Amino acid sequence: MRLSGADIQSATGGRWHGSVPDSMGAITTDSRIFQTGSTFLALRGANFDGHVYAASVADRAVALIGDKAGVALWSDLNSNLRLDLSNSILEVGDTLQAFGQIANAWRQRLVDTTVIAISGSYGKTSLRSMLETGFSALNLKVAATHANLNNLIGVPQTLLAVPLDTDIAIIECGISEVGEMERLAAIVQPDITVLTGMTEAHGEGLGGLAGIVNEKALLLEGANWCALGAGVAELFAKHHIAVHAPCLSMQQNEPEHVDWQLDDCALTLTYQGQQADMSLSLPAAHWAQNLAFAASIMLRHLNAASACTSLQSVVAALSTWQPQAGRLQTKTGHNGCLILDDCYNANPVSMQAAIDTLKAMRGNKVAILGDMAELGDVSDMAHAGLDISQLDAVYLIGEQMQTLAAKHTKVFWFASTDAALAALTDADFDSRHTILIKASRSMALEKIVQLLSQPEVIHAV
Question: Quick one: residue 202, left, alpha or beta (phi over 0 = left, psi -120 to 50 = alpha)?
Fold first, then answer.
């Protein structure tokens, strides 16, 4: 990013104290990773105040951005501690809102970049990584969300890091409260909006499924066209939400999307008389569905410009995709067992998809499943409704999983991850076993992944 102090003042409606910088580059909100020559923006939360950390970076900062109370604090620090906080200081009404406004000002400069916004209750991170892989393999310059930078702090960070010469910017947008999506949509102003699917994930703060559907729909405003995953169009119709932008829907019998068929790990994709094959590392139907969705989006975008991109070239580009850490990654465990590490997050749809993938594996199938968080009033029903039939052994962890354990007599239930760790220390798994480990991030099941992945200690005799 490269904006002038005047540009940022115009975007935020703020007021400069001291000189107005001619040029401002990176904006950082975390003093621990601050780099010389950046601007420090002080965020304020329920349990922290970033303004108190400005003194530690002020001598290396081009400028400081704070709210009225924070700027007053900096003035007091100057007087009482004789610190040199004589930087250019921009005073704004709300620093989080200002962060988004600055990011939007930079987004307006990205005139040659196609900005794709992705949201949904499940699948958005996998789809984002598939699109990043596919477009990059076709020699386009791609910038994309990394890690979990998909909220009101992460989205501005991601946008501000997009270079001017980027062809495709893929911005993941996640919400947990009413009003957040409207703000994210105003920041990103996507050319293309992608909604993967919707369920009761984060329903606790959004008013259930109806609230989720209404909030997600706000990301469609102003987009040139949108892509809707399986079931999304039906949910919009059910909740009387009109989609005004041209739409690519993954509904059955829609001619514009790519169809798929999975036979074990062999995936066949078809599109308007064309066919292409690729191999997956697991018999994961939800991966196949997402790859078909990614191929559909890529073909729609690329053919709008050149009308000559083939399904074969798109599938070849997508064939290098690999799942990200903690998202159904395969690892070798004790005695040669196979671990499916999917402990990064969970909701009812992704949990069942992972279980179904396990069912499609050969050998002894073991599931270690923890609570799914933030489901609100539907939590008991969502946990109890999981289909864990056809599995050889099931370990359930957490208070919410107790509702599922009550339905099955041959499962093991533990109140906490630590209790499960103790019980699994002497587990007798070997090369015949495939072990799925999945839960919401708050359950910290990576501890179990680490336990079962540890190499055995060989004692000298």
Answer: left
